[in-house]
Each structure stands twice: as structure tokens, then as C-alpha cells.
Amino acid sequence: MTKYAADFTIASHSKSFDLDHRKIINYNIGKYDTAVERSLTKFHNLENSKRKAHVVKWKVMENLDKLLPEFEANFQRKGGKVIWANDAEEANQEILNIIKKAGAKTVIKSKSMVTEEIELNEFLEHHSITTLESDLGEYIVQLLGQKPYHIVTPAMHLSKTDIARLFHRKFGTPIDATPEQLTLKARELLREKYTSADVGITGGNFLIADTGSMALTENEGNARLTTTFPKIHIAVIGIEKIVPSLTDLDLFWPLLASHGTGQNLTVYNTILGGPRQEGETDGPEEMYIVLLDNGRTNLLAQKDQRQGLYCIRCGACLNACPVYKNIGGHTYESTYSGPIGSIITPHMQGMENFKHLSYASSLCGKCTEVCPVKIDIHKMLLLNRRDAVEEGIAGKAEKLGWKGWKSGMMKRSMMDMLSGGWKNRLLRMFFRKTWGDTRSLPEVAPKSFNKLWKEQNPE
Asked: E strands of 116-186, at which residues?
């Protein structure tokens, strides 16, 4: 068992019995479920929309080598600059070079999971560059020194009481401050940072090939401020986020909003196509887009599993997953948690270290059911398990256990060799620890069906 798997086992056991954690998550996800259910009724034909989105993303993956250069050419035509980064180290170094060249010292960021993936904040701090998160949820977890708990709502694991205590400790606000008061305090603290920051860094929800633009979707307006005031805007975006045409947004924006937050559309939807043009009054003087691979082409090479790259990061599968709702987001030790994280992380960060995530599932199929782009998630989990076995990275005990099981199942005489009592003893001896101390082992019947049939039909 790897360190990641061992840590996961310990942390998931601990979180499963943390009643305060469960209460907060069930409350927050319950509010989300209500909003989403209401929002989905606005679709004339939801299933058709999801099917169409699936086909668009399939075409994208089949033509990624054509769409990305098309985007690059169109974006550069407007004065933007594109940087191709093979991995996190390369992306971080390129961003640092831009910042150093400009003599910048402060960075303001809007919410971005891809910058969490490359650990950009930690990298810049190591080089004495102050980075401030401007999304309220991200700002809260940054103050706590934590990673985001959820793809869409980074502070989902905290109650309003937890946040009030944090602000009281950090900024002296009343211990019983309301959410409205806390939001106003955050606004007061962050507003002047937008105008004084040298560089603004964002992610991107979609890259648009035919216009050479990027699309941002948000609810707080912080991404617009991050891209408007600083002289330099750097967007870090995964290569899979591309769509062929601007017209595709009328499909993807409502799907993302409805499944992500239960809205018909998010409050702010922005399309950015390069630095400030002549005659424009705001926007950055320089704009860079870092196109990040970081293991995505590894997943693209897996014909059966490349569906994982269709993901639009709505977080719906996390909120539906019974495992995620019990063990929480931090337990996964991966930027992308929940079902989608379980299928893409082993390919992006190594099957050996993260194969255990594909086993952290009940295979109930709810994740597949709620996915707005119809990724067959529970099938992908099984394919990852298959790959782990074929790559020979299963443990010795696991290999021996399945070898014995296969031998027994393939030969009737071996199946009937031992009585139910002996089989139960073997289960307790070899599988008790694996099964877990909170579950009862299944009991094998004293007599097999084969034996009962022979007794009742002696002829």
C-alpha cells in the first residue's frame, strides 16, 4: 500500500464518523440539490442537451490537434500571447518569468482549480511574490492555510459559525457576525488589492477556437476585476477546455450553471479575446494564456477513458456521490476530488499512487446519471481498476487473493471442497481487515446450492 492509499484509508475512516462534518456537508449539499432540481426544469429537453454536449466534447477530443492551433492563431492575431506548458514545473516557471520581466511583486487571483493543480500560490510565495485569492471561498481557505474542499465551492466544509470565528480572529469582526457582514468585510479588504496588484491571474472555463477567446463564468465579479485593473493578465487553462465555436456557449453556459450552482446562468459571464485594444478604456496591457498539459495527453491516449477530459468542472458528481458526502474533499489528497477526480487523477498523477481512488466508490452510478456531458464515470472507475491490474501494480496479497478466488470459481470440485464453516473461517482470517471493522462480513451458507440440489434430487 502506498503512502497516499494509507493516508486515504485513515482520513476517510476518521471523516466518516465526524458528525459535525457530516451535518455541514449534508446541509450545504441539500441546499444545492434543491436549487439544481429547480434549475433543471428550465430545460426544454435536458437529456438532448446533455447528449449534444457529449458529442461536441467528443469532436473536440478527436480534433484537439487542429482546434488548439486554430485558437492560438486567432488569439495571437489580437495581440495575445500563448504559452504551451507540458507540466506544472514548466507552467510555473513561465509565469514567474513574465512576473519577473515586468518587475511585479503582487498578484491577485480569481478562483482557478488548474492553478491549484500546479500549486502556483506556493511556488510564487517561495519566490517572494505575494498572491491573494479574490474569490470569497478561496480567500477563506487561503486564510486557513487549506486547499479547496470542492471544485465549485471551496469552503463547503465550513459553517457560517466557523467563518465568523475565523474573521473574528483575523480581523476583529464580531464573533456573531452575519454572512452579509462577513461578505462586506471581505469586500473592504479585497477592493483596493485589485487596483494595486501588478498581475491578475485567472483560470478559464472555456477556450473558443473560432474567435481566439476565453470565457469566464462567476458569481462575485472578482474575475472581472482581476482581469481589468492589473496591467498583465495571465490565464492558466487546461488544453481540454476548448470548444469549437462561440455558438457552443449557449449550450455549455446553462449546463455549467444549472449543474454547478443551480442557476439558469451565473451572474457574470465574460468573454476575453486579448489585451486592451486601441480605443478601449480598460483591460490589461498584456495578456497571456498558458495552455497546460500536465498529464492530460496521457489520458487522451487512453481510448476507453479519454471521456474524463469532457468534464466541464461543474461538481455535480461530487454532490451526488455517497462516498464524497461522507469522507469529504480533502481526504482525496488530489486537486480534483470525488468521482471525476477518482477517474482522472490516476492518469494525470500516476496510477501507482492513486489507483486506490478508483476503488473508493459504491458504483451506484449516480455520478454518471447527473453528469451534464454524459461521462460514463462509473464505467471509467472499473476501467481504471482493470488498468491497475494489467500494469502489475496490485499488491501481493491482492494478487494471491484473486488468484485463489479464480481457481476456486473455475472448478466445481474446489468450490465444494470446504464446508460453509471453513469458508467463513477463511473469510475472517484473510479478509476481516480489508472488509473493515465497521462492517459485518457476509456469511457463507452451511451448504452450497450444488449440494442442496443433489440432496433434493438424488436421481
From this structure: 130-133
Q: How far apart are CA 214 and CA 235, in angstroms?
A: 9
Q: Compute the distance between CA of residue 199 and CA of residue 201 in angstroms, rounded to an integer.
A: 7
Three cell numbers written together for 97: 518569468
Exposure class string for 290-327: b at 16+ Cβ within 10 A, else e: bbbbbbbbbbbebeebbbbbbbbbbbbbbbbbebbebb
Q: Each residue of 421-441: pLDDT tens digit? A: 888 888 888 778 777 777 888
Contacts of 99 (CB under 8 A, 6+ apart): 107, 124, 129, 198, 199, 232
State the pTM of this model: 0.91
What helix, strand, coil percent values describe the chain, rounded to 5? 55, 10, 30
Using a 10 angstrom Cβ sphere, with 0-12 exposed, 13-18 middle and 19 or more buried, the burial of residue 185 is middle
Q: Which domain holds residue 410?
A: 400-456
Tell me which of 248, 272, 294 is where a domain ends.
294
Point out the domain boundary residue: 294, 309, 343: 294
